[in-house]
Amino acid sequence: MNEYDVVIIGGGAAGLSAALVLTRALRRVAVIDAGQPRNAPAAHMQGFLGSDGLPPTELLASGRREVAGYGGHLLSGRVGSISHLPAAPAAGQLRFEVILDDGSTLRIRRVLVTTGLRDDIPDLPGVRERWGRDLLHCPYCHGHEVRDQPLGVLGGSPEALAHAHLVRQWSPDVVFFAHGDPLTADQRELLAARAIGVVDAPVAGLVVEDDRLTGVELVTGQVVPRAAVFVRPRFVPNDTLLTGLGCAKHDNGWVAVDATGRTSIAGVWAAGNAVNPRAQVITAAGEGSSAAIAINNDLVDEDVRIAVTKSRLGLPL
Question: Does 238 share its domain with 227?
Fold first, then answer.
């Protein structure tokens, strides 16, 4: 079978949550996932009610089992394109064709894109190796685990200073590495008022010993001991499938959706980090659930229209 009511592209928290709602609503659902979750480097997932501390891989595995248990189809692969069908057959109102990189094709009534985002992090020695371990980006996700330890915040982005003040909530020993960016007198006063240290020299890389971050090395050769470092990456949405369909964007460049995840293109929804850079795992799951309910309601409206048309023509349902 390659015809579905809904195809969900992306099998993370948002996609699986949506699939669970839709399969329980007796919809024909396929989830297509490339198997590259953003939080793969993280050993544990924090702040998810009832699952705090659970490895993210276990959450996804549990979600896949639940979706499959209700009859959902889980497909491994990457979607190459989504296109509108030339005409929507009256019997099922199939609107879209999804083509995977392996050439397989699915025809569907509605699309939900939950492809997430990617983190554009500084290109410094040690950064990619420690990402999600002791080089961190979200204090709400990881701050409690490194509380009261010597922490660093790496500058170089417009949000870095605000990030330093936020991280200060979890430790009295925070150093802001300006990474060569000039600071104003007012900015230095605010940092000093909260006892946040400032290092002006550019960072050369991270120092790792025995598979553990121990410090930040400067271009001067000096090493500032730190147990963990926070950085605010640039968030880049994985939204090429949405933009390829012509979905409208906000002024900030992110695809625009309403409160239920509906895009400007009829029949297309999006949820999670693909459209919301601030969504944590629990937020993404909630957005997926909300989108699923909206999609099902939209399908019910269409089912009613189809039923009326068939009734008037004397056709069987």
Answer: no
pLDDT tens digits, one per residue of 175-209: 999 998 899 999 999 999 999 999 999 999 999 99
Count helices and strands in the chain by DSSP H and E runs: 8, 17
Phi, psi torsion values for 279, nearest 5 degrees: -70, 120
Q: What is the dihedral of CA 118, 123, 126, 130, to 10 degrees?
A: -20
Q: Looking at this protein, which amino acid is placed at residue 186?
A: D
User: How many structural domains are present in the chain?
Assistant: 2
182: CATH = 3.50.50.60
* Domain region containing 130: 122-231
Beta strands in the chain (DSSP E): 3-9, 29-33, 73-76, 79-84, 96-100, 105-113, 117-120, 135-136, 151-154, 174-177, 196-199, 203-208, 213-218, 223-225, 228-231, 234-237, 268-270
The pair of three-digit structure tokens given for residue 264, joined into one six-digit string: 């400007």
- The neighbour count for residue 282, using CB atoms within 10 Å, is 18
Pair 226, 143 in one domain: yes
Statement to judge: residues 224 and 275 lie in one domain: no
Model pTM score: 0.91
**196 shares its domain with 270:** no
pLDDT for 45 beyond 60: yes
Per-residue pLDDT tens digits for 116-126: 999 888 888 88
Give the residue among 212, 192, 196, 185 at the shortest CA–CA distance from 152: 196
State both tokens at 38: 């953003």
Q: How far apart (Å, rounded) are the C-alpha atoms in residues 294 and 259?
A: 10
